[in-house]
Amino acid sequence: MAGSERSLTSADWDTGPAPKVYLPPSLGYPLVPRVAEVLFLAAPGGMGSKKLRRVGLSQELCDRLNRHQIVTCQDFLCLSPLELMKMTGLSYQGVHELLCLVSRACAPQMQTAYEIKTQRCAAHSSAFLSTTLSALDEALHGGVACGSLTEITGPPGCGKTQFCIMMSILATLPTNMGGLEGAVVYIDTESAFSAERLVEIAESRFPRYFDTEEKLLLTSSKVHLYRELSCDEVLQRIESLEEEIISKGVKLVIIDSVASVVRKEFDTQLQGNVRERNKFLAREAASLKYLAEEFSIPVILTNQITTHLSGALASQADLVSPADDLSLSEGTSGSSCLTAALGNTWSHSVNTRLILQYLGSERRQILIAKSPLAPFTAFVYTIEKEGLVLQDQQRP
After folding, report:
1. For the domain 118-390, what is the CATH code?
2. What is the pLDDT of residues 77-122, one digit of tens each?
3. Which of 86, 93, 99, 317 is geometrically suited to a Cys-Cys bond with 309, CB 3.0 to 4.6 A?
4. Where in the chain is the domain with CATH 3.40.50.300?
5. 190 vs 263: CA distance, rounded Å
């Protein structure tokens, strides 16, 4: 053991942008971060899911840890110093310095509003992804906000998946056409995605741009589809997206739908299921918010509707906050009304909520039910070959 032990050197972390190493001004071996702090940093769905190679460790050290399936900050911080010494060959001092580095890297840092604004300006990233629905974009101050979660909810057949497919195309377009010029990760939990529909919307909505087979092929190859049919599969996919976002230049993440797998696996009438479901939703929301904020990209999620039962039965229903009860349809006293599914935990996690609902056999409307920027507003639309089209709006 002693023969393989060595001290940490500058070669053990990259010289590029990385969190600063915390080296306490101590004479001997300073204390390792307290267990409570480590457990907090490594909490599932939190910053602990960040990959070690993104916190400043050298490739050699990452490879050595990877051989022991130590890939994330959570994996690293849940090990004892002795275990880390055996895996890395470092001295106690070196391991302690690594623990401080990794802890600092995944701990939430205080920032001023000015620093956040400066960082976003320096990144030259778009603040919004246009929906090309001009009145909706105007109300939302530009479209679907980057760095936040946007939920699309409504009854079956009202156009939620059509909207997601349309946004997938828009994200791949050049920036001079209002796009983000990037790739898309599309997580499909209902097997509802249609490649044929994607091509049809692209050709019909932007006939001048998609005038060659090559451009259609390029756009469709940028949409990376994953079919995940269980809660565990969805969560594992989300928590593994960080490197894919970097390597593939992903500019939009879509999950269609969040509610599908959750409602299949968690029966809220069984004791304990509500608590477990809320834990899962909180973890999922935290991971998605981290990705949205870290990479300044929009995340679009679809949700289903459920029946809000009033009175004594309300505690067993899939409830949301009272403000959301009015979003879909209003019920009379002692009756029921339709609301967005998944409950209060999820309702408070999304930044923007758009509700799609029927106005008749052909017409539908989009409601801005929740937004930090826009008032409660409604827009009438129809579904055409080119996707969603607002009433009285000219074709793009």
Report:
1. 3.40.50.300
2. 889 999 999 999 999 999 999 998 888 887 767 889 888 778 777 6
3. 317
4. 118-390
5. 12
